[in-house]
Specification:
It contains 13 helices and 17 strands. The longest helix has 16 residues. The protein is globular. It is α+β, with helices and mostly antiparallel strands. α5 packs parallel to α6.
Length: about 425
């Protein structure tokens, strides 16, 4: 008799609960945007998939981390604010509002898990039509818009109308099967027993926890590499700036870039990349995410034909400081350092060109925080220099700088101001 692990049993119980539906989940999460019950199947993908199969409609699945403030306005517009989205989602799709990752098939639903709002469009047989949702260091809503979403939705309807005759250009959009398909069984997930308990705002597997677990598992197995942080690069990385409303139109080609050398011109529409049909910027990111960061090639098909782009090693590098999963990557500083107020900056005579980060909290329960405290860092200190020089970085960029330029075992030299005195502190990075 085959024994079932505790994690598997917990997952089965949760999936069973999801299939029955949880009338109290909306209230526990205080999900004010999850009220359109005539439109959205609430947190029940299996039910929606059965309905999509019965009606021969594509599925529109939104993933939303309810407690997160980022993308809240866009989520409200999609969920219950925009009549055009509502009409299309209700009449042409079977639409799902998924608000937790428990019980979600991670092989089926592969997307950038650092997003605070993400959309996937699939056929009831599991084929992926498209993804929508993009974030960057510009901000959580810099790329998302109702107009852009509607454009993608209409392209999905065209793809669905042509299915299965167009299956060849869609098959690679799903992704290869993952060895573990339930979040509760991810080997790098911390506190799975806690997460297996009833979902609440304080006990919910966020999307970014999937990437957190991947980082932790890589650390545990000695396979971690900083290149893991360069997830889902924008098409800007290959020289194509895409119009954010259109989602497929090339707005600008960067001079001397791979796209420019391949002959791609502004105004062209991207139709396919590496043979995959493109319906959004997120679709382009999906293709680029699965390419190596070393010397490689990508085929981009536009209105003018097929273009072979040669990408040089390092092409994936970009500002990942906005990513929630960055914080779980080593080294973990575990100190909260928001920008110092204008009043504090004036008192310290910090020029506008330089950063001043105030130490508001030190996590002494974590190894990284304890090391910082033991090295002499104190709450209330203002960091004004790093490596003996002033710096100009936001809080997130300061932490991403640590991830890129330091490793566990290195020492971080900081200069802080405390009680009007400058103090040099060398902090061992232990985690």
């Amino acid at each position: 008799m085959r024994l079932i692990s505790t994690a598997t049993m917990m997952a089965l119980i949760i999936m069973s609960t999801c299939c029955r539906g949880d009338d109290n989940l909306r209230e526990r999460l205080k999900d004010a945007n999850g009220v359109q019950t005539d439109l959205w199947v609430y947190n029940n993908i299996p039910q929606a998939m059965a309905e999509a199969r019965r009606l021969n409609k594509p599925m529109f699945v939104t993933f939303r981390c309810v407690p997160c403030k980022d993308c809240a306005a866009f989520d409200a517009d999609v969920a219950n604010g925009n009549d055009h989205v509502r009409e299309l989602a209700k009449e042409k799709f079977v639409s799902v509002r998924q608000v937790e990752m428990k019980g979600v098939d991670l092989s089926q639903f592969q997307f950038d898990h650092d997003l605070n709002w993400a959309g996937m469009f699939i056929n009831a047989d599991g084929v992926v039509y498209a993804r929508y949702g993009t974030q960057s260091a510009e901000g959580s809503d810099a790329y998302n818009s109702i107009e852009g979403l509607l454009n993608t939705m209409n392209r999905v309807l065209e793809l669905h109308a042509g299915y299965p005759g167009n299956k060849a250009e869609l098959v690679d959009k799903r992704g290869k099967p993952r060895p573990v398909v339930n979040a509760l069984e991810l080997p790098g997930l911390r506190n799975p027993a806690k997460y297996a308990q009833q979902t609440s705002r304080q006990n919910c597997i966020h999307c970014h926890n999937i990437h957190d677990a991947e980082h932790q598992h890589a650390l545990d197995t000695g396979t971690y590499n900083v290149e893991m942080l360069y997830k889902y690069p924008l098409p800007d990385s290959i020289g194509m700036k895409i119009d954010r409303i259109s989602g497929i139109s090339v707005q600008l080609v960067t001079p001397s870039s791979a796209a420019a050398h391949a002959g791609i011109a502004a105004g062209e529409n991207v139709i396919r990349m590496n043979g995959q049909r493109i319906a959004s910027i997120a679709d382009m990111q999906w293709v680029l995410h699965h390419l190596p960061g070393t010397d490689t090639q990508v085929e981009v098909e536009t209105d003018s034909g097929k273009h072979q782009l040669s990408l040089a090693a390092g092409w994936k590098k970009h500002d990942f400081s906005w990513r929630g999963s960055m914080w779980n990557a080593p080294p973990r500083f575990q100190v909260w350092t928001p920008p110092a107020s204008d009043e504090v900056r004036r008192k310290l005579d910090v020029p506008e060109s330089d950063s001043a980060l105030e130490v508001r909290w030190i996590n002494k329960e974590g190894i990284g925080g304890r090391q910082a405290f033991e090295a002499g860092l104190r709450q209330g200190d203002v960091i004004v220099a790093m490596e003996g020089k002033p710096f100009h970085l936001t809080t997130k960029q300061f932490n991403s700088h640590l991830k890129l330029n330091y490793k566990v075992g290195d020492t971080l030299p900081l200069t802080v101001v405390r009680d009007g005195k400058r103090i040099d502190i060398s902090i061992p990075l232990a985690e």
